Amino acid sequence: MVSLLSPGYNPPTHVQIGGDLLDTVYTTERDKCATILEGNTVCQFGRSLSAKAATAKCEHEFKCLVHSIVTDHTGNVRKMHSDLEENEALNVITYSCSVPNVKEHVVKIVKYFRDNHFEHAKYKQEGGQQLVLPQDVRWNTMAECLSAYNKY
Predict the structure, then answer these.
(1) Contacts of 127 (CB under 8 A, 6+ apart)
(2) Angle at 27 (CA atoms; ends 23, 31), nearest 5 degrees
(3) In sequence order, which ranges of 21-140 are alpha helices (DSSP H)?
(4) Inter-CA distances, 77 with 34, 47, 48, 51, 69, Å
(5) How many CA atoms does the CB half-sphere of 50 hold within 13 Å?
(6) What is the pTM of this model?
(7) What is the reported pLDDT for 94?
(8) How far apart are CA 144 and CA 126, in angstroms?
(9) InterPro entries from the entry (predicted)?
(10) Is the alpha carbon torsion for 104, 108, 114, 119 positive or negative?
């Protein structure tokens, strides 16, 4: 198809795109990021269980200061969170936004309306929002769950 539009042009093969061209673009973009981040304080996002290693790598390669790390709140990340709090040399802000005893109460009520057809129909008839169960690996489900709970 391309040869019909421009007979003298040979497009790169998938091997070239996945090899040399990709490596060149990656290196160029990484250098741009390093230039922008150098000397700045940054917030790192990730799910790495080895936050210490990831933070050290970021600070070494990009010459920036990692001040905070944003992750989801799954069980495997809780260990990383406690490790970061214990290591004062990293000087990283840690904050947990789990809500003890509230989540279980709200989930019980949401499941009641979800599992009882008559109650669910009455809830919908009154203009109730879509009921959402919070999931630890989905960022907005807790907010959506509490929002629906607070409205009705």
Answers:
(1) 152
(2) 175
(3) 22-37, 51-62, 75-86, 102-115, 117-125
(4) 27, 7, 8, 9, 11
(5) 5
(6) 0.45
(7) 58
(8) 18
(9) RNaseH-like_sf (IPR012337)
(10) negative
Query: Which tokens in the block code for residue 34?
Result: 């390093």
d(Cα 57, Cα 32) in Å, to the nearest integer?
17
Residue 89 has pLDDT above 80, yes or no: no
Q: Specify the pLDDT at position 66.
A: 81
Tokens of 124: 């919908």
pLDDT, position 139: 63
The string of pLDDT tens digits covering residues 41-65 is 887 776 555 667 778 888 888 998 8
Residue range 96-118, pLDDT digits in tens:
555 567 778 888 888 998 899 99
Report how far apart, in Å, the C-alpha atoms of 152 and of each of 82, 106, 114 are. Answer: 36, 12, 14
Query: What's the CA gap between 59 and 38, in Å, rounded?
Result: 9
What is the rounded distance in angstroms from the CA atom of residue 63 to the CA atom of residue 87?
20
Tokens for 52?
A: 């210490």
* d(C-alpha 106, C-alpha 132), whole Å: 10
Range with the poorest average pLDDT among 19-33, 37-51, 59-73, 92-106: 92-106
